[in-house]
Structure formats: C-alpha cells, structure tokens
Design a protein that fits this description.
InterPro entries: GDSL_Rv0518-like (IPR053140), SGNH_hydro (IPR013830), SGNH_hydro_sf (IPR036514), Transposase_17 (IPR002686), Transposase_17_sf (IPR036515). This protein is α/β, with parallel strands linked by helices. It has nine helices and ten strands.
Length: 342
Amino acid sequence: MAELEGIRTGSHCVFALHAHLVFVTKYRHKVFSDAHLARMQEIMRAVCGDFATGLVEFNGENNQARAPYRPRPADSGGTAAHRLSTVMWQRYVAIGDSTTEGLDDPDDAGGYRGWADRFAEAVAREQGGLEYANLAIRGRTTARILAEQLPVALDLAPDLCTVVAGMNDVLRPSFDARRIAADVATMQRALVGQGATVLTFTLPDPVPVMPLARPLRGRVVMLNAALRRVTAETGATLLDFAAHPVASDPRLWSEDRLHANSAGHERIAAALAHTAGLSGYDDSWTRPLAVAPRRRGHEVLRTELAWTRRHLLPWLARHLRGRSSGDNRVAKRPVPLPVELT
C-alpha cells in the first residue's frame, strides 16, 4: 500500500512516554490535606489502570498535586522473554535498624546483603530497573530512625519505602509500645503523604528462637498490636510475620538469635515481593520447614552455653557501658543507585 511506504513493519517499537497532570487550586490558601492527597493518589492509580498506564509519581506541592504517569504496553500473551513488565516504582528507600541493614546475611564482600537488597533486586528484575538506597543502621531505636533517617528519606522522594523498627526498643528498659507505634505512624504518614507505597512488618515471636526472651514476649505482642492499629490508619501496608509460626523457626535465624540468617532474609524478601504483587511470588513463604530432628539434652546445653558466651554476655557488657553496635557507623547505601542484576 502506498500510504505504508517508508514505514517499517514487522516489529514493535516501545516509547517511554510520560505525561504530567497538574491540579491547580482556585484559592491561594492550602486546600489539599494529607487525606485528600492520599485519596487522590488512589483515584489516579485506578484511572491509570483503566487506561493501561502506570502512575509513576504523585506529589502534593503546596497548592497543586502533580501526577506523572507512563503508558504501559499490554501483555501480548507471548513468552516471558517477550513480555514487558509494568514500571510501578522508580526509587526504593529502606529505613530501619540492623535487620534492614542486612545482618546476618553476608554478601561475600565483607558486608551484608539482607532482605532489603534482595527485595530491591526482585522489584528491579520485575520492572527492568530500580533505584535503591538503604539508610538503615544497626542498633537504631525507632526514635532515632524517625529523627535521623526519615528526613533523608523524604528528601530522596521514594515511591517505594520499607519502614521496619522496634526490636531495639523491645530490648530496652524504657520500652513504650504506644510511643514506638506513634513514631512508626509518623514515618508512615509522611512517606505515604508524599506518594510512596510503604511496607512494614510485625516482629515474630522471639521465644522459639531465644528461650531466654520469654519475659519479652508480652512486649512484642503489645508492639505488634499497636503496629497493626496504626498501619491500618496511615495507608501503609502491613506484612504480619507474627501471624506465621515459620517466622520463628530457629533455622531461619543466625547464631546470635537476633537477626535472620541468609535463608531467613531470603524468605522475608519473598514475603515482601508477594505482598507487593510481584509476579512469580506466592504465599509459599508461609509454609513451615520440614520437621527438625530432636536434639539431645547435652547438645541443647552446649549450644546454650556457647550462645551465652559468644553473644549474650558481649551484648550485655556493651549495653551496660551505654554503647551500641551502630556507634560511628553510617548507612551502607545512602545514595539511590541503580540495582545491579546478575
């Protein structure tokens, strides 16, 4: 056909198109509250979904709300190698303490990988790319995460964020579940209000992992109840690890009994990926491990004595001196960088 001359056919060409929708208020005073912006973001996501597009960002700035979006190609029904995944998030920022930093999941380079790195890789693999920053520092209490990490995270303007805190507070005499949950809620609201998808999770029962932690079980139960309540109010998404016994399987925890091992971090990342709706992930992370062989009494005693000597006593000595494992440490990935996929 003459009208098709000079036009290449037989292949597909995908363009990265962006459009910006700007709502300008009629009045000069502030009109959009955080609740308005959160609801508008939900509406815009739904509208973009109806038109086969993906909402890239949603920011309320004084008297306007800006919502850039990107058209996404429809699934042609071909093989996975020929399908183009939807770009949902551009920048992921993780804030928290040692578990978010990655202890105890060695990266074979002298540092730690952890569930946040693994989750970032899963998102990047799904979308074809992602910027990722990890601001977490071991030993940080919820109050310090709020004071030190949240302002940096807000400046980085993520559209995906994990907020995990509370374990270091549980271990301290000044524990206050309502205050901790209130601080977590403040972080969640600030990030959700800026347009981010925010994920958080409850703490597993520590007793199966650390029998000496039985006096702390009540604190964990109170904190988890408070986290469930505030997360339901802020618009963040809660992953309830406490509801799944496998989260307290000692085989998913490191020798120090405070941090997950590599298998545990892998399972946490899989749970987050499933919660985030990434393809290829399901609820298999909730399934229990095979029944462990019963240990003899002398084996249990030897293990307990070794743990006390290597981990408990040094931890007690450090805290009696007012020291923290996070003293003089900085975040391992303070600047958002593209996730490298192997």
